Amino acid sequence: EWIVERSLKNAIALAIKKDRRIKEEVNVELQDDQIKVFLVKRTNGKTTIPLDISTEDVNRIAAYAAKEEFLKELERAEEERGYLEFLEREGEIVVGIVRKITEEGDVIVDLGKVVGTLPKREQIRKEEYKPGSRVRALILSVKRKKGKYEILLSRTHPMFLKRLIEQEVPEVKSGEVVIKAVVREPGERAKVIVHSEDPRIDPVGVVVGVKGSRILPITEELSGEKIDVIKWTEDAQELIKRSLSPAPVSRIRLNYNSRRAEVGIPKDKLSMAIGKHGVNVKLANKITGWYIDVMAEEDFDRLIRLS
């Protein structure tokens, strides 16, 4: 039995039950030149009894049901086409309107023809969302779940920050400046490594902009997230020093076998190197791929003497 035919028969049966206020099961048969309607009785087995209804009434109800079913199918097809369009846009930034916030804290976002979900885990913790407000987010994934499409959004993914920089900095979008790595503690701090093959280009200056003109709007978009832009180098020692920005590094010793770095910092700058709740050194660890042990200069010198 064709899916369309089965859907149409079900629609006609439901319309007849509603029109005639019938509680029993109704069966519909589509014949060459007419529509037959039966009541289904289930006592000792299944019995079908022709329903006392005129041909005119059946045709009227069937025409209405067919129209309703057609409109539903059209709506479903339009919705599916909308989701398929977003499937091709995974990894891009989208702007939508907050429709509602669920009990679990997920934000339902109106994206035009379709809706997306910004799950609690993909939200910047300090942010609050209100129905009717605009929200910008990364299209994290488009998945089919239980016969329906689901668009998942994110404001915490490192790719979201990368895409924001691409939008703000033409040289990144054109490829003159390359973003080699991004790590984030959403809403708190982020580190971005940039590089350019053109020796005439200062990649850090290009991304930050004059007096921070390019990076500040991104920080504002991310609820005050401080963004350290670091110039790429193949020299591991120098990269580790740069990754601990804004703290100055005065001493460093590397163990290449264990990928461990012991780093000496002026005592009055030690808290800056570690960062609030250890965020700065944690991000430096992640972006360099080294375990960085930060200590005061005095402790570093003592360690060197003992080893």
Main pleated sheet: 5 strands, mixed, barrel
Basic shape: elongated
Question: How much is the average pLDDT?
Answer: 89
Order of helices and strands: HEEEHEEEEEHHEEHHEHEEHHEH
Uncertain runs are none
What is the percent of helical residues? 25-40%
How far from one another are the termini?
Answer: 82 Å
Q: What percent of residues are in strands?
A: 25-35%
Q: Rg to the nearest angstrom?
A: 31 Å
Describe this structure in words.
- There is one protein chain.
- This protein has four domains: 3-87; 93-154, OB fold (Dihydrolipoamide Acetyltransferase, E2P) (Beta Barrel), CATH 2.40.50; 157-232, GMP Synthetase, Chain A, domain 3, CATH 3.30.300; 235-307, GMP Synthetase, Chain A, domain 3 (2-Layer Sandwich).
- The termini are far apart.
- It has helices spanning 3-20, 55-87, 158-168, 170-174, 203-208, 215-221, 236-243, 270-274, 279-288, 297-306; strands at 25-30, 35-43, 45-50, 93-101, 107-110, 115-118, 134-145, 148-154, 178-185, 189-195, 226-231, 251-255, 260-265, 291-296.
- It is an alpha+beta fold.
- Helix 1 crosses helix 2 (55-87) and helix 7 (236-243) runs antiparallel to helix 9.
- The longest helix has 33 residues, at 55-87.
